[in-house]
Write a structure and sequence with these properties.
By secondary structure, the protein is of the alpha+beta class. The chain has a single domain (about 5-120), classed as VSR Endonuclease (Endonuclease, Chain A, 3-Layer(aba) Sandwich), CATH 3.40.960. The protein has helices at about 5-25, 30-40, 80-90, 100-105, 110-120, and strands at about 50-55, 55-60, 65-70, 95-100. It has a 4-stranded mixed sheet, with helices on both faces. The longest helix is centred in the first third of the chain and has 23 residues, at about 5-25. It is globular and about 50 Å long.
């Protein structure tokens, strides 16, 4: 890798890390609800929130289970192609991706958590 490319990659990595930190500081309401249910090993594995994986920031990551959980709210509307591309990249990196509609998290948190538990069991 050239020095220019190396500097660009480093700068991009820093930008993603800063953006992830901001997203952790100002989560959506659905992310707050889900985080309350899955944090601190409550499902038998540790999750992290707003984590940089490759060139993407994922909502929740269970590193040991290699499971990514994405809460798809209104900010994902019209981004189906980009989201599908992100999911393919994550799968190539060895992660499984579970998408949960934000509305499900808000209205039926228990169902959303059950889907995560099922995905963890499939791992």
């Amino acid at each position: 890798m050239s020095a220019f490319a190396d500097r660009h990659a480093h700068r991009r990595s820093q930008e993603l890390a800063e953006r992830a930190a901001l997203m952790r500081a100002v989560p959506t309401e659905s992310e707050v609800r889900l985080w309350g249910a899955i944090r601190a090993g409550r499902l038998g594995t540790r999750f992290r929130q707003q984590v940089v994986v490759g060139e993407h920031i994922v909502d929740f990551l269970a590193p040991a289970a290699r499971l990514v959980v994405e809460v798809d709210g209104t900010c994902h509307e019209g981004r189906e192609v980009a989201d599908a591309r992100r999911d393919r990249v994550l799968r190539r990196l060895g992660y499984r991706v579970l998408g949960l509609p934000a509305e499900l998290v808000m209205r039926e948190l228990g169902v959303a958590v059950s889907r995560i538990v099922e995905a963890l069991a499939e791992g």
